Amino acid sequence: MKQTSPPFDLLFFIEPPHDCNYFSDRRASTLFVDPRYPKDRRLQTLLLENGFRRSGEHLYRPYCRGCRACVSVRLPVADFRPRRSQRRAWRKNEDLTVLIRPPTLSEEHFGLYARYIDTRHPEGGMANPTQAQYLDFLTAPWAETLFIEFRLEKRLLGVCVVDRLDNGLSAVYTFFEPGCPERGLGVYAILRAIHEARRADLDWLYLGYWIETSPKMCYKSEYRPQERLSGGQWKKRHRRTHRCRCQAHPGFPGFRRHKIRELSVH
């Protein structure tokens, strides 16, 4: 399935190369939409169809010299069939109450977020977060963001942060109680997002980037069928693949403005 191209020009910025978060022997670079450009749900939908993601107020995609290991993935929610282990995770969490609410900053939410980050990512750049960083990372004034809460009675166990798109939901981030590994809350969060997309009669759940050889990212291949963006087209995959696809990709030295009239690659 070919993605839709925006019918307008956009300006982009390319950041200087930096150490890759996933491959110690590679350098990474990122393409950002001009932050001055007005954004809304329509633009976000079109850009996600072309392999972009949202982080805070920024829309971006990897733009690395010599590597295309980061592959955009989305799930056709009407066709999704859970695996046995995923059905178990769902059953283990049937005692949870699910609430959907606008983004919020509370001591309860931030406390869980900080505990999750400091437990799961103590060495990364996200460690020791502040409340300002929490909001800047998860929300944007123009995005239609929802917090899907999981509660055991009144206790907050997890939050799945999603953006509403024209045709689906985009999974932005999930944080949950690190002291409950037996529940499989990370798996449950994706299953719940699929469920909510179906309830809203939407087509897709966008999962962000899949990297086959990265332990942090390869778990996304467990959710099938899925579509992966390759060569300008969304291609359905029913089974996991085991060969990493890396292709040449143009890089740009320094940090400079770059104008792209056509986002889709044919």
UniProtKB/TrEMBL annotation:
The lineage of its organism: Bacteria, Pseudomonadati, Pseudomonadota, Gammaproteobacteria, Candidatus Kentrum. Residues 18-88 form the N-end aminoacyl transferase N-terminal domain. GO terms for biological process: ubiquitin-dependent protein catabolic process via the N-end rule pathway. It is found in: Cytoplasm. InterPro entries: Acyl_CoA_acyltransferase, Asp_Glu_LeuTrfase, N-end_Aminoacyl_Trfase, N-end_Aminoacyl_Trfase_C, N-end_Aminoacyl_Trfase_N. Residues 108-229 form the N-end rule aminoacyl transferase C-terminal domain. One of its GO terms (molecular function) is arginyl-tRNA--protein transferase activity. SUPFAM superfamilies: Acyl-CoA N-acyltransferases (Nat). Its EC number is 2.3.2.29. Belongs to the R-transferase family. Bpt subfamily. It holds the Pfam family ATE_C. One of its GO terms (cellular component) is cytoplasm. Functions in the N-end rule pathway of protein degradation where it conjugates Leu from its aminoacyl-tRNA to the N-termini of proteins containing an N-terminal aspartate or glutamate. NCBIfam families: PRK01305.1-1, PRK01305.1-3, PRK01305.2-3. Keywords: Acyltransferase, Cytoplasm, Transferase. It catalyses: N-terminal L-glutamyl-[protein] + L-leucyl-tRNA(Leu) = N-terminal L-leucyl-L-glutamyl-[protein] + tRNA(Leu) + H(+); N-terminal L-aspartyl-[protein] + L-leucyl-tRNA(Leu) = N-terminal L-leucyl-L-aspartyl-[protein] + tRNA(Leu) + H(+). Signal peptide: none annotated. This is Aspartate/glutamate leucyltransferase. It comes from Candidatus Kentrum eta.
